[in-house]
Amino acid sequence: MKNDNNHVSIGLLNPKSASNVAVILRAAGCFGVSSIFYTGSRYTHAKAFHEDTKKIRNLIPSTAVDDLLSALPQGATPVVIELVEGATPLPAFVHPKNAYYIFGPEDGSVPQHIVNACEHVVYIPTKTSMNLAVTANVVLYDRLAKSDYEKGDDLIRQSRDVNNNVKVTRA
């Protein structure tokens, strides 16, 4: 992203699946997340999970906390992502520059006191619920898509896998 004044942190409420956390770590690296906070003990097992092929776990601090709200980064706007009645649909949501996205567990919901404490509550309009990793990826991509992001071949070369050297050519 071009604007370095944007900061993104993620809060994970007792995430259940190691594979989902590994995918979130990968997305965090792709979309410029600066820190991850988590509750519960299930995340600890995911930090060494092999799906984090880029080893983002070594680049982005992830911190165990007792309460996600107490971990609110300085100046961040708390945004809960949950299928909650009265929430704002993601396509209509304007992301804050300094955001702290809180996601619930795959097998539960974000507690009411956290929903009440957040400045924004956002849902992704779907026909059924998505898993945690997909939800985080969609939110982070939506944030990027609505921003003034870096574009072009330099970004593509820097972002793609070393095994990919395909180019668009027209005859």
TrEMBL record:
One of its GO terms (cellular component) is cytosol. GO terms for biological process: tRNA nucleoside ribose methylation. InterPro entries: Alpha/beta_knot_MTases, RNA_MeTrfase_TrmJ/LasT, SpoU_MeTrfase, tRNA_m1G_MTases_N. The keyword S-adenosyl-L-methionine applies. The keyword Oxidoreductase does not apply. It comes from the Bacteria. SUPFAM superfamilies: alpha/beta knot. Residues 9-141 form the tRNA/rRNA methyltransferase SpoU type domain. Keywords: Methyltransferase, S-adenosyl-L-methionine, Transferase. One of its GO terms (molecular function) is RNA binding. Belongs to the class IV-like SAM-binding methyltransferase superfamily. RNA methyltransferase TrmH family. PANTHER family: TRNA/RRNA METHYLTRANSFERASE (PTHR42786), TRNA_RRNA METHYLTRANSFERASE SPOU TYPE DOMAIN-CONTAINING PROTEIN (PTHR42786:SF6). This is tRNA/rRNA methyltransferase SpoU type domain-containing protein. It comes from Glaciecola punicea ACAM 611.
